[in-house]
């Protein structure tokens, strides 16, 4: 009783029956009016060759004929309308069933799709009507959900793999140390240092994972950000780590550079670039931090004199958990998410991050962000 097919059939039958009843009623009233106004002035009959006319009986004959005609019309109309009602029910049920058949196919396909496997599609055929568009829209949604779930599964797999390595290192060192009752203080200290480095690496990885996971869902602040001040703050913070690594950090920014965005997020992106540059720069080299304007874009560049990145790897550096030399990266405690987070932050601000690198000549990473206000143009940024 509550199905769409039943309601469509009922509405269809009521409409057909109602329209037919109006038509028949109109015909009946019109015929009744016409017969009522039709006059018979006299009645003539012949007996034995003599014609008699009786005007008094004319009206009686007229009324009898009219009443009989109207009675016949009422009876025929009643049965015709009754038959039409049941016929409209049958036709409406069949037609609505055919019209709603694609909806049933969509429902069955959706019911068969499992949450763990979104590869199946409705793939509805037939004319390009509203139901076909609904099925195509649902297929597109399934495709996007499948991509999102696949990315989530891959992310969980990679994250668990990355966390398993430092845990294995900690466990192995502890087992070896505990198995040796004669372990010296130096050996114990060495094991403790290994455990400390591994735990630091896990903490850094967890922090990066949280940032990576949340940047796609958190709405960033949209405030004016002074790029020159941002560069000065980053340079001040990384001067000590650069000195400890034997790297000279220099910075330069043109005044009046403003963008709209999240200052803390941009500060984090710039910090990730500086941390990578200092980590990969040989002792005695220079890391440059600069900013400027080119057209409607503000750029922030971090340039180093490190080993550079091979051309075949330059498209992969922004992939999560990519470290180049995986073993060396793990030993240095890198999570492989720093540049991925940089790209996320840049894209969230309507910009992008670019890389120019040459093996044995260093690398230059640049954040390009939409400028808030015009400023004096700066020299071109990156030249390969």
Automatic annotation (TrEMBL):
Gene3D superfamilies for the chain: 1.10.287.130, 6.10.340.10, Histidine kinase-like ATPase, C-terminal domain (3.30.565.10)
Enzyme Commission no: 2.7.13.3
Keyword Kinase part of the UniProt annotation: yes
Keywords carried by this UniProt record: Kinase, Membrane, Phosphoprotein, Transferase, Transmembrane, Transmembrane helix, Two-component regulatory system
Ranges for domain HAMP: 97-150
Residue runs in coiled coils: none
Domain Histidine kinase residues, every copy: 158-373
InterPro entries documented for this protein: HAMP_dom (IPR003660), HATPase_C_sf (IPR036890), HATPase_dom (IPR003594), His_kinase_dom (IPR005467), HisK_dim/P_dom (IPR003661), HisK_dim/P_sf (IPR036097), Sensor_HK_Regulatory (IPR050736), Sig_transdc_His_kin-like_C (IPR004358)
Transmembrane segments: 12-31, 76-95
GO cellular component, one term: membrane
Keyword Nucleus attributed: no
MF term (GO), any: phosphorelay sensor kinase activity
Catalytic activity: ATP + protein L-histidine = ADP + protein N-phospho-L-histidine
SMART domains the UniProt entry points to: HAMP (SM00304), HATPase_c (SM00387), HisKA (SM00388)
Name of the featured protein: histidine kinase
Source organism: freshwater metagenome
